[in-house]
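Structure ticket #2291
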Amino acid sequence: MERANESSLMGFVLLGFSDRPHLEAVLFVFVLFFYLLTLVGNFTIIIVSHLDASLHTPMYFFLTNLSLLDLCFTTSLAPQTLVNLRGPEKTITYGGCAAQLYISLALGSTECILLAVMALDRYVAVCKPLHYVVIMNPRLCQQLASISWLSGLANSLIHATFTLQLSLCGNHRLDHFICEVPALLKLACVDTTVNELVLFVVSVLFLLLPPAFILISYGFITQAVLRIKSEEARHKACSTCSSHLTVVVIFYGTIIYMYLQPSNSYTQDQGKFISLFYTMVTPTLNPIIYTLRNKDVKEALKKLLSGKLCSLQM
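Resolution: structure written out below.
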């Protein structure tokens, strides 16, 4: 028991990219650049959606939740990563590692469910446009958002607790740049069958069922779009749906590649770079995709900026 508790006293050494010191300076700039982009982009989406009355709709309510998620998710990981890339000491306390694990798991799981909820919103908007306002009322939207956040929290409490209860027998050299479940399982000096079973069940619930629901929703949406006779209405439906679908493909494509393939099918270095992409780059892409591909957001942003300029000139 003494050796098992040793990691909780010493914390962890995050090996990260220490075997490639020439890359660390480049990766520091890379992480800092995308972290700042994430902050600016997602704060912009939140502020614009709040200030512009025309964006007070279910779609932008869920988009605001997504932006808040991305802000919190990246902030839970980026500062520690920057510190470790910059300094000679690459350590994290046991409490810091546990907090990072709980928070990142909760937010990542919440995003899996929230993207499915956003697909439901798009399905109702395209397939049942006359009943959209009645069906997607504010109360239902708040309930769906709450279910997303609570399901992510529940998964984190179960999954992270199972992982942190493993006996590590003093092993504290974590071959990753963040505290992540697969990397922690490799440190365990006991049988991890139960943990791997939990990881499999969680992967099915959060990484297979939501994408399956999204694909079914978009099957119905495609049928409805093909029946629309107005070219303008069809283009608008495609525009709002394509933004969400692009985000879904990038998010699920990366995370499924990371978690749902055999661990021996890719190297540890590949795993680190994949993690770097979905933790630092993906949260940056969401606001860019929605801003560039969405006419409503661009117009709201222009109105906000022109209003600010007018007030400054006066």
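Closing remark: The chain has one domain: 12-306.
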